[in-house]
Specification:
Length: 77
């Protein structure tokens, strides 16, 4: 059986909300965004939100299951 992992690329943006900078972390595969005072906090909040989503809608995990690569190599042309 193939080794699978749940993964996604978090898109981080910043915005000013009532004179305070906040960071948004978005999982584009699922269209879900969460926020925090730092990029790291926004990502952690997004991960917690995704875990709650998967408890209610386990089938959504399928959108994030990817095969682990056997090799990652940087190729320079």
């Amino acid at each position: 059986m193939e080794d699978k992992e749940l993964s996604f690329e978090a898109v981080i943006t910043e915005e000013i909300n009532e004179d305070k900078k906040i960071y948004n972390a978005t999982c584009e595969e699922l269209g879900i965004t969460d926020f925090g005072d730092t990029p790291e906090e926004a990502i952690e909040n997004l991960k917690k939100g995704l875990e709650l989503l998967f408890e209610v809608e386990p089938s959504k995990k399928e959108l994030l299951i990817k095969s682990k690569p056997i090799m990652i190599k940087k190729v320079i042309l």
